[in-house]
Amino acid sequence: MNNRVIPISLAVIDREQRDRLEKMIAANPMVRLVGDDAEEMGVLIYEPGDSVEEDMPHIIHALESGQAEDVYLAGDVADPEILIRAMRSGIREYLKFPVEENDLRAAVMRTAMRLSLTVDDTDKGRILTVLGCKSGVGTTTLAVNLACALNEREPGRTVLLDLHAPMGEIPYFLDLKYDYTWGDLVADISRLDATYLRSVIAEHESGLHVLPAPGAGERPDDHTLVLILEQLRQSYDFVVVDAATPDEDELPKEVELADSILMAMQLSLPCLARVTRLTESLAGQDPDADRRLRLVANRVVRNGSIGVPEAAEVLGREIAWTLPEDGETVLSALNQGTPVVQAFPKSAAAKGVQALLKGLAPREKKAHKKLSLPFSSFFRKKGKNSDTNDNLAGAAL
C-alpha cells in the first residue's frame, strides 16, 4: 500500500462540517490538510453547491489529468443526477453529513490502495543505498562522491541522505553548514510533503541537496523512514543513502527499498568473512536483494596479497567495481571539505567513482508536472441544498 501521507483539500460549504472534517484529518496519521492556495490538491472533498455546474468540468479534468488524486463528494443530499455523472467520471466516494470518522478512514484506505496499484515506477527516483561490510571501509567517502558525481550531471536532482550510525559525518566531507536534519522531519512527520521537505534540506554550493543526520539519537522507526524515503524519491531523480552497516538479522528499510545496493569492502580476510555473512543474511530475508546488490572493493592496491579474482572466487560472486588506493588524495580532499571528484577530478579515486557511476546507468531526464488549473474556484461556494438524503454515507460509488 502507498505509505505516504495523503494530502486532502476541502471545498466544503457547511462551516460546522468543515470544522468536523479538519479535526478528523488532524487526528489521522495517513492524511494531512492542505490550504486553499496550495500548489497540490491531493484528495479533494467537495460539497456540491450552487456553482456545481461550473465546478464539475474542472473537477473531472483535475481527476482525469492526475492533478487531483481522488475526489470525494460530500453533503446532506445525494443528488442522483450528480452521482451518476460522478460515477461516469471516475469519482467513487460519497461522504454523508455528518461525516463519521470510520467512513472517512475507509475512504482514505480505498484511495491508498488504488494509488498503490497505479503508481508509475518510471516517475519515481532511484534509491542507491551505500553500506559497508564493516566500519572503516570508506562507505561515507563512496556515498558522498557518488552523490556529487550524479549531481554534476543535473544539479539539484540528487539528494544525499545521512543514515550512518552512530553519528553522521557527511557535513565534514562537504564543509556543509545546515540548520535542520531528518530529526526535524521525524518530530513532525504528519506535515511531510514536498514543500516541508525542501524547507529542511540543506544545499551544497555544487547544487547537491543533503538531508543530514541529527547529532545524536536513534534512527527513524520503519514506518517514518519509509515515508521519508518515498517522499525523497518523489522529489528527486536519485536518492543516495549513506547507510550504517546492518546487523546480520535485520533488513533495514533503506536496503529493502533500494533500487541498487552498493556494499563497500576491502580485500582482507575479515572483510571477506563479513561480506559472506551479510550477503547470505540479506538474500535469506529478501531473495531479490541478491539481484540488486553489487560489491565495491575499495582501496585496492597493486600486487596485494589478495587480488580481486581471488576475492571473487572466495565470495562466489562478482566484485562489480574496484576503487584504487589513493589515500593521500582522499585525505587531502576530506581535510578541504571538498569531494574527491571535485577537488581532484583527474585522480585515480575520482576516475574510479566515475567508472562506477557509468555502470549504474542513470535514468534519463524527465519532465516535472506542475499545477495549472484555476482550482481556487472550488473554494468560493455561496450556498447549498438542504433536501433529505438517501443514506449513502461513506459509500464507494
Automatic annotation (TrEMBL):
Signal peptide: none annotated. Pfam families: CbiA (PF01656). SUPFAM superfamilies: P-loop containing nucleoside triphosphate hydrolases (SSF52540). InterPro entries: CobQ/CobB/MinD/ParA_Nub-bd_dom, P-loop_NTPase, ParA/MinD_ATPase. Residues 129-327 form the CobQ/CobB/MinD/ParA nucleotide binding domain. GO terms for molecular function: ATP binding; ATP hydrolysis activity. GO terms for biological process: negative regulation of cell division. One of its GO terms (cellular component) is cytosol. This is Response regulator receiver protein. It comes from Pseudodesulfovibrio mercurii.
